[in-house]
């Protein structure tokens, strides 16, 4: 099978994961109304998903090296679709929370397996570009998810977006079943020491920093739609279209990482620049009395900064962890989602009770801590190199 077809199928699969996760940024109000709760409580539908993803990702990262990855991908697509359909008939908010946790487990199986399949089939010299193609699928999901969710919710009801993404997963399953070949699992010729990387500061510093800034940036984005709705009185559909500006910026950042990295010369320099830009964009969006156009510009810059920071940080972690990169990158996914789990409900509560300034304090503390840890890491590396 040509690798190009494989990449397009995997991009389609992760597209629906991204769309399902991020479409909730436009749906907090209608979900709150459907389950007779507040928007702050509705944000737990995101946090519960993040919790189960954080717990399950390292497990499935380990299992994907010891199973038929094609089968694991297909099963996770079906489970993700079933979860979306079941959520639309959830009898209570508690049941919806449980189903979102189940969806997080399915997603945790799907994402690492998709990227492992790329590394199995695509030659090493082309893997970076291939990973980028699949990652763009996720980015387009982030862009399109809120837009379609808002439009479908306005046209029908809150269940329609979940019906659409579940149907898409089933279509992706049918196509993938026909064209993705079975691949034997690969086991390393040399067994690395288990968890030896934990005591290496050159890995743990950027690992924890990434968990903080990535999780906080995503948590803030998931609240951005509610901020725009409260500030400008937008409908659900208009919110969905508006927050897609973040996804546009994210795509530009993903596509621009090559030129920016060449300009900055080192990944750690690129990361510091991206984090500074991220903090500026988030702070301006949350605190400045901007018109809608200004808010959208901030969202584009917000996404652009994150689109630069994520691949730069991933490259750093993969290079430094060497033989342990599978474990390290899986733990990185878990830390990202743990940060969402902690930051999102606190920031959502502050937004509801005290407004955007209080929510920004929560986001700002976490972002500032991640930047400080990143700067400490750069300092340690310079001292070791001198």
TrEMBL record:
It is a multi-pass membrane protein. Its main location: membrane. It is found in: Cell membrane. The keyword Cell membrane applies. PROSITE patterns: MFS. GO terms for cellular component: plasma membrane. Keywords: Cell membrane, Membrane, Transmembrane, Transmembrane helix. The chain crosses the membrane at residues 44-63, 72-91, 97-118, 130-152, 158-176, 197-224, 236-257, 269-288, 294-316, 328-348, 354-376. GO terms for molecular function: transmembrane transporter activity. Pfam families: MFS_1 (PF07690). Residues 6-382 form the Major facilitator superfamily (MFS) profile domain. This is MFS transporter. It comes from Ensifer canadensis.
């Amino acid at each position: 099978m040509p690798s190009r077809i494989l990449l397009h199928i995997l991009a389609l699969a992760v597209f629906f994961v991204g769309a399902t996760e991020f479409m909730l940024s436009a749906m907090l109000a209608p979900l709150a109304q459907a389950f007779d709760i507040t928007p702050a409580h509705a944000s737990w539908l995101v946090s519960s998903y993040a919790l189960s993803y954080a717990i399950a990702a390292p497990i499935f990262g380990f299992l994907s090296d010891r199973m038929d990855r094609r089968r694991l991908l297909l099963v996770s697509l079906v489970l993700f679709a079933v979860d979306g359909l079941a959520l639309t008939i959830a009898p209570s908010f508690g049941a919806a929370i449980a189903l979102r946790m189940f969806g997080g487990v399915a997603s945790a199986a799907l994402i690492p397996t998709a990227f492992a399949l790329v590394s199995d089939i695509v030659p090493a010299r082309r893997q970076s570009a291939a990973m980028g193609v699949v990652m763009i699928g996720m980015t387009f999901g982030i862009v399109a998810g809120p837009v379609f969710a808002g439009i479908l919710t306005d046209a029908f009801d809150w269940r329609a977006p979940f019906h659409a993404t579940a149907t898409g997963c089933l279509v992706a399953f049918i196509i993938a079943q026909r064209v993705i070949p079975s691949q034997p699992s690969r086991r390393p010729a040399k067994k690395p020491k288990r968890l030896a990387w934990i005591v290496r500061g050159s890995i743990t510093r950027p690992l924890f920093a990434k968990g903080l800034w990535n999780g906080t940036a995503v948590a803030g984005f998931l609240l951005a739609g509610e901020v725009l709705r409260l500030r400008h009185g937008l409908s659900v559909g208009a919110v969905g279209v508006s927050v897609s500006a973040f996804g546009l910026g994210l795509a530009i950042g993903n596509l621009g990482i090559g030129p920016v990295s060449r300009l900055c010369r080192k990944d750690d320099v690129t990361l510091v620049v991206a984090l500074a830009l991220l903090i500026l964009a988030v702070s301006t969006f949350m605190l400045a009395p901007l018109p809608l156009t200004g808010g959208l510009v901030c969202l584009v810059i917000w996404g652009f900064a994150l689109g630069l920071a994520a691949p730069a940080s991933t490259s750093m972690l993969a290079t430094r962890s060497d033989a342990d990169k599978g474990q390290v990158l899986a733990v990185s996914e878990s830390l990202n989602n743990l940060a969402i789990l902690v930051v999102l409900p606190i920031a959502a509560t502050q937004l509801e009770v005290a407004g955007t300034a209080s929510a920004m304090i929560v986001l700002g503390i976490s972002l500032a801590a991640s930047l400080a840890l990143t700067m400490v890491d750069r300092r340690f590396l310079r001292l070791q190199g001198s």
